[in-house]
Amino acid sequence: MHNHLRQIIEQTADIIVITDVHGIIEYVNPAFEKITGYSPDEILGKNPNFFSSGRQGEEFYAHMWSTLLAGKVYRNNLINKRKDGSLFHADITITPLVDNNADITHFFASVSDISEDIHDKVRLKQLIQHDSLTDLPNRSLFLDRLQQAISKAQHLHRLVAVLFLDLDRFKNINDSLGHTAGDQLLQQLSERFRKTIREGDTIARFGGDEFVILLDDFDSDNSLSLIAQKILNSLAIPFEISSHEIFITASIGISISPHDGEDPDTLLRNADIAMYRAKELGKNNFQYYSEAMTAHVFKHLSLENNLRHALERNEFMLHYQPQVDARSGKIFGVEALLRWQHPDLGLVMPNNFISLLEETGLIEPVGIWVLETACKQSRQWHQSGMGFVHMSVNLSSRQFNNNHFIASLENIIKETRINPQYLELELTESMLMRNTSSIITALKNLNNLGVRFAIDDFGTGYSSLNYLRRFPIDTIKIDRSFIRDITHDSDDLAICSAIIGMTQSLALNVIAEGVETHAQLDILKSKKCHYIQGNVFSPAVPAANMTQMLADQLLI
Q1: Class of domain 130-289 as given by CATH
Q2: Could you say which of 44, 234, 272, 511 is the most buried, measured as most Cβ atoms within 10 Å of its Cβ?
Q3: What is the CATH T-level fold of the domain 303-551, as seen in this structure?
Q4: pLDDT greater than 80 at residue 464
């Protein structure tokens, strides 16, 4: 070998191997030892098959030798084994060397270690086909697997099911604890789902809080129901996130091919429709798709379209529910509650459209309308000689987090000339749990205007005595879920007693919500909970009715 040629071969980063016509190694360059770990003394005089990985079968090598012995250059990728047993991907080119008689005398092999390239491609494919947060398959990979499963099932006359899962009230967790905590919850959820589903099933994350599961090996609807219930049951154990114990539920919609669709898009759409039906039926359940659900969805969309015009058409109205001092029987305040006077459906209650307001973003302009209307009504009652009536108004998370909210409220107070000390904004526990300086600043700025704050649905969220100490809270409202069974459930009675005692020790007002019966009222009065709101006195009524009640005053 000429010195210049040898110098090039010995300095190249690729492996160079020269064998005789029988494949016995006669020469290797320094790169061989660097990449494989074998020294020249260990391999000279041997056949290269001693570092074969076994990944290539007999047909692979038969084709290679037939090509080489025909005098042709052979190129391919293969996997070889290093001295330490590790594998590496190689791009190999073998050239037959011939003498003057055109007889093959040697083989010259150039081998490139392409392991890093292969790994990069694998990583790229992983990134392209998997969700970066949870490492679950993404929509693209799921659709590919679903199409394969449908094709296979059609050939074998079997069924394929899609389970569309959406977490219930996940937005509340993001709003209260922040997106970092939300991401941690999604990661823990994904790991729990992996352990819950069967081996061979596919679970993918479609983004946000949506997960989709592919099942292609089941024998009946009953077995599907068992799997769906198992998934729901897996969420019963709380998650530990940022020192908080988080409870979460999910709603699941199920579609089955070929009955509910014979292509991925149709199956997914129908499973999605069934999932929304599960949410409408109370969440934390699963529903099978039916054609009747599609008609229901169209009605839902129609309601959404009408809702977008309800504000400009003056279809919203406020009803007011009195808050009563049970000791005197006098009304000391009211809560403003939104209603929608639909032109065709009549009076629509908020549980049928509040979620739509939030989804469409209309909750903010409608929320401002509620505040302005409630403040105008409060001012009107005062001008009519009925004194100052405490006006409670619910705030949504989106309203509260809007940078322009404080300025908007300040303008409303100025324009309506309401005494802000008689305006109470109701917040949920989850809205305060971020505990950020911006929230504290916002509350203090509002408090400086004279506005008061109440915690609504107390005890149902992330209750913490710490925020009662840190934030300027004036009133605690005991959630109706603790009041409902207070006459016969000792746990609910104990919870109510504890909340009442705590608020009194902190010099806060406490209002019991959802009081329906005199038996409930008597128990609450015996526990010295004097402020009552509920149908035991009056349901929420239009402004005219409330005006008459304020004029009459006594409700006991």
Answers
A1: alpha beta
A2: 511
A3: TIM Barrel (3.20.20)
A4: no
